[in-house]
Amino acid sequence: MVRLIIEGREYFGFVTDNLSLPYNTIASTFGFSGLDDYSPVPLRFPKVEVYFNDDLLLTGVIVNQNYQSVSKPTLVSVSGYSKAGILEDCTIPLSAMPMELDNMSLREICDKLLPLFGLKYTVENSVRDLMEKKFEKTNFSYDKKLKSLLVELANERGVFTNHLANGNIHFTDSSADNLFIQEHFEDDGVTEMTLDVDGQAMHSHISVLASSDDEDITEGEYTIRNPYVNITRPIIHTMKNGDAIDVKEYARLLLATELRGIKLKISTTKFIKPGQLISVKSERLRLPNVTAFFVEKTDVKEDAKGLKYEMECVLKDVYSKKTVKNIFV
User: Fold this and answer.
1) SS3 breakdown of the chain: % helix, strand, coil, rounded to 5?
2) From the CB of residue 162, how many other CB atoms can be counted at a distance below 10 Å?
3) What distance in Å separates the CA atoms of residue 277 and residue 23, rounded to the nearest whole number?
4) How many CA atoms within 13 Å lie on the side-chain side of 319?
5) pTM, entire model
6) Which of 274, 256, 260 is nearest to 310 (CA)?
7) Which tens digit of pLDDT belongs to each residue from 279-304?
């Protein structure tokens, strides 16, 4: 069951309108409805904790509230996001200007910006060196939302920007290779499974050219093959900041981005947190062999029959650096 705690007080009798728990994003979102006594005073931005049984899922704040005045009792709706969601809405405060971010590492930039909003962050050991690597120039403007700034800088280093249940930002790599399968799904016993394959998003050969920032001199090149495309569909990406990441690593990241064109959606009665592996076998979905998928997002909703769970999944290869094999062959 979903449990809702606002400013330390647990509430009962509410309806879960939506609870969206994505992986590889800076915040989760929620929406609940309940009777009048469940709603706090507007615009206090109260702290919210959301649990599934005793497992903490989200720590954040209520941002939006909706009230009605009618003759019969009505539900009051509240919604919001986990703590780092504020970075989606805000820029650096004018009181902190001027601010110089050039020739700083991503760690130094986080140390400078996140305390302005009372936020903390953690770093996976595998990306500590990348977090310490300095940027000569940052694509920074005073009116730029902080989420965009941090995510763009992290992407330049091949670092994923995630968030934890306590609301803190978490920087990690793309490795799902050490995860274990949490649940197996087949045609029988599942409410619905859908496999969407976007061939237009894919190319047979992904080439990367790394060039100097100053004179646009090509410093390196590499081509990676996409095993899912057996016709000629090439594409070239120019890598302007040649010192950001190795061309081979960047090409593998671009392939991972293209592999997002293969998406699996599952509606089920079992709750599975994002960031975990499941396996699927389905003749109807053209998956005759057991195939590992990474749960990238779980949405929780409630209707008259109770809670239901909808998962969005991508291939495990999206979160791996290993050689990609075609699952349909």
Assistant:
1) 20, 40, 40
2) 21
3) 12
4) 25
5) 0.88
6) 274
7) 999 999 999 999 999 999 999 998 87
CB count within 10 Å of CB 83 equals 26
CA atoms of 122 and 164, how far apart (whole Å): 9
pLDDT in tens, 107-156: 999 999 999 999 999 999 989 999 999 888 887 788 999 999 999 999 88
pLDDT above 90 as % of the chain: 63
- Asked whether the predicted pLDDT for residue 214 surpasses 80, the reply is no
Banded pLDDT at 240 (limits 50, 70, 90): low
d(CA 115, CA 255): 35
Q: Which domains does the chain have, with CATH numbers?
A: 2-87 (2.30.300.10), 90-172 (3.55.50.10), 181-294+311-319 (no CATH)
| Alpha-carbon radius of gyration of the chain | 22
- Nearest Cα to 183, choosing from 286, 59, 298? 298
The Cα 325–Cα 322 span in angstroms is 9
Single-letter residue type at 29: T
State the CB neighbour count (10 A cutoff) for residue 189: 9
* Distances in whole angstroms, Cα of residue 184 to Cα of each of 94, 189, 190, 191, 300: 51, 11, 10, 14, 19
**Closest C-alpha to 149, from 113, 117, 180:** 113
The answer for residues whose C-beta is within 8 angstroms of residue 283's C-beta and 6 or more apart is: 187
CA distance 83 to 117: 9
Among the listed residues 132, 177, 195, 196, the one whose alpha carbon sits nearest the alpha carbon of residue 159: 132
Helix (H, G, I), strand (E, B) or coil at 150: helix
Least confident of 88-92, 104-108, 133-137, 189-193: 189-193
Q: What are phi and psi of 310, to 5 degrees?
A: -125, 120
pLDDT of residue 34: 85
Q: Residue range 68-93: average pLDDT?
A: 87
